[in-house]
Amino acid sequence: MTSKHEFAVCDPQYERRVRESFSRQGLMKHLEARLTELKPGMAELRVAFREELTQQHGYFHAGVSGSLADVACGYAAYTLMPEDSSVLTVEYKINLMAPAQGEELIARARVVRSGKTLKICTADVFARKGETESYCATVLATIMCLAGKSDGK
Amino acid sequence: MTSKHEFAVCDPQYERRVRESFSRQGLMKHLEARLTELKPGMAELRVAFREELTQQHGYFHAGVSGSLADVACGYAAYTLMPEDSSVLTVEYKINLMAPAQGEELIARARVVRSGKTLKICTADVFARKGETESYCATVLATIMCLAGKSDGK
Amino acid sequence: MTSKHEFAVCDPQYERRVRESFSRQGLMKHLEARLTELKPGMAELRVAFREELTQQHGYFHAGVSGSLADVACGYAAYTLMPEDSSVLTVEYKINLMAPAQGEELIARARVVRSGKTLKICTADVFARKGETESYCATVLATIMCLAGKSDGK
Amino acid sequence: MTSKHEFAVCDPQYERRVRESFSRQGLMKHLEARLTELKPGMAELRVAFREELTQQHGYFHAGVSGSLADVACGYAAYTLMPEDSSVLTVEYKINLMAPAQGEELIARARVVRSGKTLKICTADVFARKGETESYCATVLATIMCLAGKSDGK
Question: pLDDT-derived band of residue C2, with 50, 70 and 90 as boundaries?
């Protein structure tokens, strides 16, 4: 699946807006996740491995993959929303395809369809060991724009 | 949707097995989630509100709802699996229907179809304020039984 | 999962509106599906077995289960929408849990969350043999209301 | 999302096996769908527009998009299964992103993860008008291999 069209950015300050919103997510701090890349219609998040993020076999927990991918999708979509708007995840589906075993977990999301109210996004999740990334999960998400409702307090 | 049939338990020690597996999940400790109920084909998890679990507006993060519901589905299914088996989430889909605002988040899962290899589960997520629970998310999940592969180390 | 609240109907002529829309669906005619029950927030569809609806083993095709469940969800949601609106399926997920083998396939949908723009619905699909219904698929769907856009031509 | 690895084919006669199975699907005949391309881990289906395939506004019905995408995913996966096996859709999720308006509907599926028992597939659905294809739906599916259970009668 490829989406060749460039996305129109309606708020040139989107990066500041997205990063400010991300910084208010208590869960992202608690997981020590970082927003490592941001472009119109795209976002990447990373988190380093530690025991606090594991499932019962010592790999990254599916909940961490899901959380990272959901947030990556939300902010990929939020780059394309107007200044005075909030972002909301309507729903997502995740397929966990391989054990998420590695030093770092990476979620890369992009918008595949940018409607005014709804934006459809996919995210792929990779576990990195050294320079090798293994593909461990894929996500398909529906993100909603709440227009006229600023994301801040 | 109701599933009236009782499920057959093939391992009478299922509770010890499930609780032991749950206790090895680093993420559940990190979130301070508790496994508060367990019956054949059913599991309930709870987590108290704190800032470490929030999204940008101060409610429970969708990643917490997703993680709790996924784990509740997995262990609801695991109650019905044989002693010498592991449990694996193949995929889940979550619809976030209302802000998860309250003192406690509760995920209740049950098996709706118990195949030998795959078990299909649903979970509902509620945010509790005092004695009122508000329905905030619903999950549909596919859980896999890895037979002959003990869950422990 | 139970949803005890009655849903508010904002268009008392909802049944005429839903049935008129259903009658314009060429696919439903082609499958010979019938809209057999309609209440606020609920819809039931049925289709009799025939070879034109089979998959490779001679059971009802997953595409028939999916189509019926999608339409049932859409019209369950449409009962709660205003007169001057259109209905649109944003997305759905279906778990196929057992072979759909029988004389008739029945999809029963209900709204579990009725937001202004988005309505979340579930549907269960049963295959009926004589008086026995076997539960063969479950669906979780997101339906959208396009306000101010009449469904007719 | 890219999957660069070539998939290993364990049955050199996969095309004959897939086409024979496809030819037994009554629904595909009834919709007049054609299996227009088949490679290891990939399948394409097409269907021409006609009124029998419409929803209430005269576009291709979501049920047609879902059916085509599901079958394309199933047979993309089935190309990688052994001779003596059956193919089963466990579940799929579809996002309907734009009206499916055109002369022909095309579903292109590919395997993104090929496990022994489960194969994860995505499909994209396009509506073609003349030489222009518009992207109208995307699917994420879990397909199961039933080993030792021949697909034929």
Answer: very low
Q: Residues of A with CB below 8 A from C144's CB?
A: 118
> What pLDDT shows up at residue C153?
54
How far CA A132 is from CA of A69, A104, C50, D2, in Å, comes to 20, 11, 52, 15
Q: Do D93 and B93 touch (CB under 8 A)?
A: yes
**Closest by alpha carbon to C128, among C57, C27, C45, C71?**
C45
Which residue type sits at A129? Answer: K
Q: Would an 8 Å CB–CB cutoff place C36 in contact with chain D?
A: no
Distance, in Å, from the CA atom of A2 to the CA atom of A129, rounded to the nearest integer, reads 27
Residue B109 CB neighbours (<10 A) = 28
Residue A26 sits at the chain B interface (C-beta within 8 Å): yes
Closest residue in C to D32 (Cα–Cα): C52
Cβ contacts of D114 within 8 Å, gap of 6 or more: D7, D41, D77, D80
What separation in angstroms does the CA of B2 have from each of B44, B45, B91?
Answer: 17, 20, 22
ipTM summary value:
0.94
Residues of chain B positioned with their CB less than 8 A from the CB of D91? 91, 142
* pTM, full prediction: 0.95
